Amino acid sequence: NRSLVSIDDYTKEEILEVLARAAEFEKNPNSNILEGKVISSLFFEPSTRTRLSFETAISRMGGRIVGFSDSSSSSTSKGETLNDTIKMVSNYSDLIVMRHPIEGSARWASEVSDVPVINAGDGANQHPTQTMLDLYSIQKTQGTLENLNIFMVGDLKYGRTVHSLLMALSHFNPTFHFIAPKELEIPRAYKIFMDENNITYYEHTEFDSIINDADILYMTRVQRERFADPLEYEKVKNVYILKNNMLKDTKDNLRILHPLPRVNEIAVDVDTNPKAYYFEQALNGVYARQAIIAKALNL
Ligand code: CP
């Protein structure tokens, strides 16, 4: 089926096709192409941007939304399984957008559902729609996706946006620099993926002095909700904080991205620096998600 569960469900050509469609939606966001369509929005985990940008995307295309943003108000709280919820909801709607805390839940849902499932984040695994807006933002600010120096900083272990983005960028000959404390380094499976695809990458634990070659600085939040032991979170929670004075010798084309929400890993004085792009990045999520929905429904 036409689900988007992992970013590698899209080929390089499909990624480029969806990005081109997103640019069309940016020029003309309002249409009726979803008229008569019902889209289910099932958020078993909190969200601001992903849920609201999907809802905006659907509204701008004339579709209807059903669903929940708090699973405690659904029959999950009475013990209904994900299997049964998805079977029901796939009979109600033309497409399911789902966020869930369990890794692999979106794949499971796509196998149970009769309609396409779009993964809006499954635990620490994947967040492919975030990747499409990240790629759109990179292409828009750099003029290309090819041959870029990409620095990813923070929680590279639990950060699902990092996992999806590194896989997608691997089509475009990147050089990666991963900056993380040992406890939060990139999982082995992604290192194997990069080795198999001959991707150049470097790992660092120091942050301050090494970002001057960056084209993209992708900051991430330490994912408190994924830590089994709160004390382990306390040890790493403030490990890297980007401050304005760290940007003075960086490249003119550098743009700072962050999937958001931010806790304190980017000081607020960076927000007015012309290299800060994270709020525009979040707006790009509407166009990217319009394009993803249109592709999933073959429109
Ligand atoms: N970037 C992102 O997924 O944000 P939300 O958790 O607010 O949806």
UniProtKB/TrEMBL annotation:
Provide the residue positions that the database annotates as binding L-aspartate.
78, 160, 221
Q: Name one GO cellular component term.
A: cytosol
Q: Does the keyword Repeat apply?
A: no
Report which reactions are catalysed by this protein. carbamoyl phosphate + L-aspartate = N-carbamoyl-L-aspartate + phosphate + H(+)
Q: Which residues bind carbamoyl phosphate?
A: 49-50, 99, 127, 130, 260-261
Extract the InterPro entries matched here: Asp/Orn_carbamoyltranf_P-bd (IPR006132), Asp/Orn_carbamoylTrfase (IPR006130), Asp/Orn_carbamoylTrfase_sf (IPR036901), Asp_carbamoyltransf (IPR002082), Asp_carbamoyltransf_Asp/Orn-bd (IPR006131)
Superkingdom of origin organism: Bacteria
List residues of the Aspartate/ornithine carbamoyltransferase Asp/Orn-binding domain: 147-294
The Aspartate/ornithine carbamoyltransferase carbamoyl-P binding domain extends over: 2-139
Q: Does the keyword Lyase apply?
A: no
Pathway it works in: Pyrimidine metabolism; UMP biosynthesis via de novo pathway; (S)-dihydroorotate from bicarbonate: step 2/3
List the GO molecular function terms: amino acid binding; aspartate carbamoyltransferase activity
Q: What is its EC number?
A: 2.1.3.2
Pfam families from the UniProt entry: OTCace (PF00185), OTCace_N (PF02729)
Q: Which UniProt keywords apply?
A: Pyrimidine biosynthesis, Transferase
Task: Report the record's Gene Ontology biological process terms.
Answer: 'de novo' pyrimidine nucleobase biosynthetic process; 'de novo' UMP biosynthetic process; amino acid metabolic process
What is the purpose of this protein?
Catalyzes the condensation of carbamoyl phosphate and aspartate to form carbamoyl aspartate and inorganic phosphate, the committed step in the de novo pyrimidine nucleotide biosynthesis pathway.
User: Record's family?
Assistant: Belongs to the aspartate/ornithine carbamoyltransferase superfamily. ATCase family.
Q: How does it assemble?
A: Heterododecamer (2C3:3R2) of six catalytic PyrB chains organized as two trimers (C3), and six regulatory PyrI chains organized as three dimers (R2).
Give the protein name, as stated in the record: Aspartate carbamoyltransferase
Please tell me the species this chain comes from: Ancylomarina salipaludis
Designated gene of the protein = pyrB
